[in-house]
Amino acid sequence: MLTKIMQLNLRLLAKPFLAPRFSVAFQRRWASMLMLLNQNAGGTSFDLINMNGVPARLIRTTTASDRAVLYLHGGAYVLGDPKSHRGLCSHLARFSDARVYTVDYRLAPEHPYPAALEDALTAYRWLLGEGFSADQISIAGDSAGGGLATAIVCNIRDQGLPMPGKLLLISPFVDMTLSGESMQSHADADPMLRQDWLRSSGDFYRGETPADHPDCSPLFADLKGFPPTLIHVGSEEVLLDDAKRLTAALQAAGAQVTLRVFEGYWHDFQLQAGLVPMANDSLAGFADFLSSS
User: Fold this and answer.
1) Stretch 241-245: mean pLDDT, rounded?
2) Candidate CATH numbers 3.40.630.10, 3.40.50.1820, 3.40.640.10, 3.30.420.60; the one for domain 2-291
3) Residue 182 and residue 237 in contact, taking contact as beta carbons nearer than 8 Å
4) Residues 92, 281: contact at Cβ < 8 Å?
5) How far, in Å, are 81, 144, 183 from residue 116 at the CA level?
6) Residue 24 pLDDT > 80, yes or no?
7) SS3 helix, strand, coil % of the chain, rounded to 5?
8) 3-class DSSP assignment, residue 281
9) Torsion sign across C-alpha atoms 198, 168, 149, 26
10) 72 close to 25: Cβ distance less than 8 angstroms
């Protein structure tokens, strides 16, 4: 019952207002209010930190291990911050006992590409400089943060940096050309995302950069050498085919990748961890993946 209520709330309170006709400033204020409904995990602490000039939050339990998760939040590159994803990341930290570093990367349209990518790479270099070995670091992200996470792994490889141990993606937005079939077929089923909003937000981020540029649409990147990857996506979202096609592309490149489609669930339902049981199940699955050899 609660799951249906959450889905209806998104359809009534999120989808109509995540639209190009509203200013980005309004969308940010509205999204911030909606995020207040999400639940933080108990037994976790939240510390403001500076990752070599990039602000972030460190979320951890009192028994946190020496594993680190570099987390890149969603919001179509125009919304979101560590506070908006505090609930999701705190539950991930509680389930996994990892140290979750939520990066407050710069947002468009004020800071278009490559600002977010540069900030994410700076944060990764900072973790290495703090003494974490690459195999102790996993990179994670949801929605646009999932696209950004995929893009920085490509850049980490191309810059000759040591590759992270694992990649965790929630409903990754990896194709700014919006060419996935589910963009059309799931337009009505998706209670949260609109194609026109994804297009306008993507345009804000990429500026004059082509929509199929691999840094903006890593679905079209060279994915060779990727670490083991776990992807979770809902069956009812317009980004379903982004996840499916990315999985196929990673498999074709020789990566170890697992895709789980949650039937009947919507985009980024993991944000409702603590309220929606299946969101807890998804994050517990990521925690198991983090601890696996």
Assistant:
1) 98
2) 3.40.50.1820
3) yes
4) no
5) 12, 10, 25
6) yes
7) 40, 15, 45
8) helix
9) positive
10) no
The answer on pLDDT for 23 being more than 80 is: yes
Query: Hey, how many other C-beta atoms are within 10 angstroms of the C-beta on 264?
Result: 13
Mean pLDDT of 212-232: 98
Q: What is the pLDDT of residues 33-91, one digit of tens each?
A: 999 889 999 999 999 999 999 999 999 999 999 999 999 999 999 999 999 999 999 99
Give 99: exposed, middle or buried? Use CB within 10 Å, 0-12, 13-18, 19+.
Answer: buried
Q: Tell me the catalytic residues.
A: 143, 237
Pairing state between β 229-234 and 166-170: parallel
Is pLDDT of 4 > 90?
no
Q: Quote the CA–CA distance of 64 and 127 in Å, as a whole number.
A: 16
Q: Which of these, 166, 183, 195, lies nearest to 76 by C-alpha position?
A: 195
Which pLDDT does position 293 carry in this prediction? 76
Query: 72 pairs with which residues across the strands?
Result: 103, 141
Coil, strand or helix at 257:
strand
**Exposed, middle or buried: residue 17 (CB in 10 Å: 0-12, 13-18, 19+)?**
middle
Per-residue model confidence as pLDDT tens digits over 115-162: 999 999 999 999 999 999 999 999 999 999 999 999 999 999 999 999
Tell which phi-psi region holds residue 79, choosing left (phi > 0), alpha (psi between -120 and 50) or beta: beta
Structure tokens at 161: 């940096």
The Cα–Cα gap between 183 and 97 comes to 36
Specify the amino acid at residue 139.
I
